[in-house]
# Entry
Amino acid sequence: MKIAVKANVALAPLTTFEIGGAARHFCAITEEGQIPPALEFAERQQLPVFVLGGGSNVLVSDAGFPGLVLAIRIVGRQRSGSEVEVGAGENWDGFVAWCVQQDLAGLECLSGIPGSTGGTPIQNVGAYGQEVAETITAVRAWDRQAREFVELGRGDCRFAYRFSRFNGSDGGRYVVSSVRFALRPGGAPAVRYPDLQKRLGAAQPSLAQVRDTVLAVRRGKGMVIEAGGAPWGSAGSYFKNPVLTAEQYEALAHVADLPRGGHLPLFAGPDGQTKTSAAWLIEKAGFAKGFRPLVNGQPGPAGLSPQHTLALVNYGGARAADVFALQEEIQAAVEAKFGIRLQPEPIFVGPPPCG
Ligand SMILES: Cc1cc2nc3c(=O)[nH]c(=O)nc-3n(C[C@H](O)[C@H](O)[C@H](O)COP(=O)(O)OP(=O)(O)OC[C@H]3O[C@@H](n4cnc5c(N)ncnc54)[C@H](O)[C@@H]3O)c2cc1C
# Structure
């Protein structure tokens, strides 16, 4: 099958952070049959490979990527009863909007998340009490190890909070070409998140009302990417909410200015674990919304979003090194105060300081 490989393609405009250098080689994949020959091209030249979806969860190195970037642009969706198979390159939010229109329940709380459908199983995308692990029944992918297309069932994906085999031990092994979801035709929406429950009231809302409410809440936090929207780039939440062991919870509850119990924000994930809020830890460690380290006495190009402590943003002209320095400053302060090392959510692409 024919492939077109381009040289020196700028990656920054293909990411929501709008940061980073160029890909040495770049190949857009519009049909799954193009995946094996593109990988053979990289193998012949002994090039590293990076698979890019919508670029909404990556931080690309200022030096770019010294190998082949495969940009997954496979589109299309096929419905068969309650199941829908979706091309990995389909825009995620477009698919969620379509499901809501078709009265298919199961993804409504995941409205407004940027990126591709093929990107969603990688970190088990989740928001407002819902995760894709609940509805994904199979992931079709090229297995770079076995050199064949495989279909991985939900159990094979090893989903957990912001985790799957695709970003765990098997990171980089699979190139996802399509994802199958089992949805609930005419089903009730999931309204599990307190903020949503408060806004929607007691009556049973429609899927469309839940989608609109999620979008409104997200807009308030600067977490929706819209034309003419926020004048900064980001990868959404930069740090994962830490999952606490019983010992960490005890230690945290004893921190000097923290009243025991009550005030510590704890919430249970669908995987039965206890998490606390990374945004809360960051604020208590001394970083307010809009925090922007000075560079030569002027506000620098990287900082915290004025709308959400958890989003590190590019105010214009930031380099990966600026974001990385801010990440390390925050990690060190939170660790010094609470003994918890925050883990970044975006994937680092290319040589250090990203990679
Ligand atoms: C404003 C904003 C809000 C966000 N809100 C949320 C949120 O509420 N919840 C949440 O979970 N995330 C959120 N995110 C993060 C991000 O949108 C999701 O993680 C998204 O699913 C990433 O998909 P992508 O296609 O953009 O992946 P990319 O950023 O392109 O890639 C991310 C990772 O997935 C891999 N990957 C992508 N596509 C494929 C494929 N086809 N095959 C194999 N590997 C692939 C890449 O190699 C990389 O490792 C947000 C981001 C932004 C910018």
The chain has a mean pLDDT of 93.
